[in-house]
Amino acid sequence: MSMFWRGLACLACVVVAGSASAVEKWTITDLGSSRTESLCVAAATESFVSFSNVFGASKVIRATWTVYGYGLNNSEHDAVITCTFSTANATRATLVVYSENAVQGGLISNRLAQHFYDHNDRLEQEWLDAAYKRFGF
Protein backbone atom coordinates (compact mmCIF):
# COMPACT_ATOMS: atom_id res chain seq x y z
CA MET A 1 0.00 0.00 0.00
CA SER A 2 1.48 3.36 -0.99
CA MET A 3 2.28 6.05 1.56
CA PHE A 4 -0.53 8.25 0.23
CA TRP A 5 -3.18 5.56 0.66
CA ARG A 6 -1.91 4.77 4.15
CA GLY A 7 -2.14 8.45 5.00
CA LEU A 8 -5.60 8.69 3.52
CA ALA A 9 -6.71 5.60 5.46
CA CYS A 10 -5.32 7.11 8.66
CA LEU A 11 -7.15 10.35 7.93
CA ALA A 12 -10.40 8.44 7.41
CA CYS A 13 -9.91 6.65 10.75
CA VAL A 14 -9.26 9.94 12.51
CA VAL A 15 -12.36 11.48 10.97
CA VAL A 16 -14.58 8.52 11.83
CA ALA A 17 -13.22 7.53 15.23
CA GLY A 18 -11.37 10.61 16.45
CA SER A 19 -12.46 13.57 18.44
CA ALA A 20 -13.15 16.99 16.96
CA SER A 21 -9.71 18.20 18.05
CA ALA A 22 -8.03 15.46 15.98
CA VAL A 23 -9.91 16.54 12.87
CA GLU A 24 -8.86 20.15 13.43
CA LYS A 25 -5.23 19.14 12.87
CA TRP A 26 -5.86 18.57 9.14
CA THR A 27 -6.28 21.29 6.52
CA ILE A 28 -7.37 20.15 3.07
CA THR A 29 -7.33 22.54 0.11
CA ASP A 30 -8.50 21.92 -3.45
CA LEU A 31 -5.86 23.59 -5.62
CA GLY A 32 -7.83 23.19 -8.84
CA SER A 33 -6.83 21.55 -12.07
CA SER A 34 -3.63 21.44 -14.06
CA ARG A 35 -3.14 20.50 -17.71
CA THR A 36 -0.92 17.49 -17.06
CA GLU A 37 0.29 15.43 -14.15
CA SER A 38 3.89 16.41 -14.85
CA LEU A 39 3.02 20.13 -14.74
CA CYS A 40 1.13 19.62 -11.49
CA VAL A 41 3.99 17.70 -9.86
CA ALA A 42 6.52 20.28 -11.08
CA ALA A 43 4.42 23.12 -9.64
CA ALA A 44 4.01 21.22 -6.36
CA THR A 45 7.76 20.59 -6.16
CA GLU A 46 8.58 24.23 -6.84
CA SER A 47 5.98 25.25 -4.24
CA PHE A 48 7.63 23.21 -1.51
CA VAL A 49 11.12 24.34 -2.54
CA SER A 50 10.04 28.00 -2.52
CA PHE A 51 8.39 27.55 0.87
CA SER A 52 11.45 25.75 2.20
CA ASN A 53 13.82 28.48 0.99
CA VAL A 54 11.90 31.13 2.93
CA PHE A 55 10.41 29.33 5.94
CA GLY A 56 12.39 26.09 6.14
CA ALA A 57 11.59 22.41 5.79
CA SER A 58 13.44 19.32 6.96
CA LYS A 59 12.69 17.30 3.83
CA VAL A 60 10.89 17.55 0.47
CA ILE A 61 10.23 14.28 -1.38
CA ARG A 62 8.91 14.06 -4.93
CA ALA A 63 7.15 10.85 -5.96
CA THR A 64 5.34 9.92 -9.16
CA TRP A 65 2.14 11.90 -8.51
CA THR A 66 2.70 13.34 -5.05
CA VAL A 67 5.11 15.74 -3.38
CA TYR A 68 5.66 15.58 0.38
CA GLY A 69 7.04 18.27 2.67
CA TYR A 70 8.15 17.36 6.19
CA GLY A 71 9.08 19.63 9.07
CA LEU A 72 7.65 22.70 7.37
CA ASN A 73 8.38 26.04 9.01
CA ASN A 74 11.17 24.16 10.86
CA SER A 75 8.51 22.65 13.10
CA GLU A 76 6.10 19.73 13.33
CA HIS A 77 4.06 20.55 10.22
CA ASP A 78 3.81 18.11 7.32
CA ALA A 79 2.05 18.43 3.97
CA VAL A 80 1.42 16.60 0.73
CA ILE A 81 0.21 17.80 -2.66
CA THR A 82 -1.40 15.06 -4.72
CA CYS A 83 -1.84 15.30 -8.49
CA THR A 84 -4.59 12.87 -9.43
CA PHE A 85 -6.33 12.20 -12.74
CA SER A 86 -9.59 14.07 -13.17
CA THR A 87 -12.21 14.45 -15.87
CA ALA A 88 -11.49 15.79 -19.38
CA ASN A 89 -7.86 14.62 -19.25
CA ALA A 90 -7.01 17.15 -16.55
CA THR A 91 -5.13 16.60 -13.32
CA ARG A 92 -6.59 17.70 -9.99
CA ALA A 93 -4.26 19.05 -7.29
CA THR A 94 -5.09 18.67 -3.61
CA LEU A 95 -3.09 19.97 -0.65
CA VAL A 96 -3.28 18.25 2.73
CA VAL A 97 -1.50 19.84 5.72
CA TYR A 98 -1.12 18.20 9.14
CA SER A 99 -0.31 20.46 12.05
CA GLU A 100 -0.78 20.27 15.81
CA ASN A 101 -1.64 23.98 15.70
CA ALA A 102 -4.70 24.71 13.55
CA VAL A 103 -3.83 28.37 13.05
CA GLN A 104 -0.27 27.66 11.92
CA GLY A 105 -1.53 24.80 9.74
CA GLY A 106 -3.97 27.16 8.05
CA LEU A 107 -1.25 29.75 7.45
CA ILE A 108 1.07 27.12 5.98
CA SER A 109 -1.76 25.83 3.80
CA ASN A 110 -2.50 29.34 2.50
CA ARG A 111 1.17 30.03 1.76
CA LEU A 112 1.72 26.69 -0.02
CA ALA A 113 -1.48 27.17 -2.03
CA GLN A 114 -0.34 30.62 -3.18
CA HIS A 115 3.07 29.24 -4.16
CA PHE A 116 1.33 26.45 -6.09
CA TYR A 117 -0.98 28.84 -7.95
CA ASP A 118 1.95 31.08 -8.95
CA HIS A 119 4.15 28.22 -10.14
CA ASN A 120 1.32 26.35 -11.86
CA ASP A 121 0.22 29.47 -13.78
CA ARG A 122 3.80 30.12 -14.94
CA LEU A 123 4.42 26.50 -15.95
CA GLU A 124 1.12 26.26 -17.82
CA GLN A 125 1.90 29.47 -19.71
CA GLU A 126 5.31 28.06 -20.70
CA TRP A 127 3.58 24.82 -21.77
CA LEU A 128 1.07 26.74 -23.91
CA ASP A 129 3.80 28.89 -25.48
CA ALA A 130 5.77 25.76 -26.41
CA ALA A 131 2.61 24.12 -27.84
CA TYR A 132 1.81 27.20 -29.94
CA LYS A 133 5.36 27.25 -31.35
CA ARG A 134 5.35 23.50 -32.00
CA PHE A 135 2.06 23.58 -33.90
CA GLY A 136 2.64 26.92 -35.60
CA PHE A 137 -0.11 29.01 -34.04
Description:
- 53% of the residues lie in helices and 28% in strands.
- With 137 residues, the chain is of the alpha+beta class.
- It has a five-stranded antiparallel sheet, covered by helices on one side.
- Mean pLDDT is 84; it is low at 8-20.
- The protein has a single domain, classed as TATA-Binding Protein (2-Layer Sandwich), CATH 3.30.310.180.
- Helix 3 (37-55) packs across helix 4.
Short key terms for the protein model shown above:
single chain, 137 residues, alpha+beta, TATA-Binding Protein, 5-stranded antiparallel sheet, 4 helices, 5 strands, 53% helix, elongated
Task: Write the SSE topology.
Elements (H helix, E strand, L loop, with lengths): L2 H15 L2 H4 L2 E9 L2 H19 L3 E4 L3 E7 L4 E9 L5 E9 L2 H34 L2
Antiparallel strand pairs: 1-5, 2-3, 3-4, 4-5
Helix pairs in contact: 3-4
- Whole-number mean pLDDT: 84
Biggest sheet, in brief?
A: 5 strands, antiparallel
Shape: elongated
Radius of gyration: 16 Å
Q: Structural class, from secondary structure content?
A: alpha+beta
Give the number of domains.
1
- Overall strand count: 5
Give the SSE order as H and E letters.
HHEHEEEEH
Query: DSSP helix count?
Result: 4
Poorly predicted runs of 5 or more residues: 8-20
Assigned CATH class: Alpha Beta
End-to-end distance: 45 Å
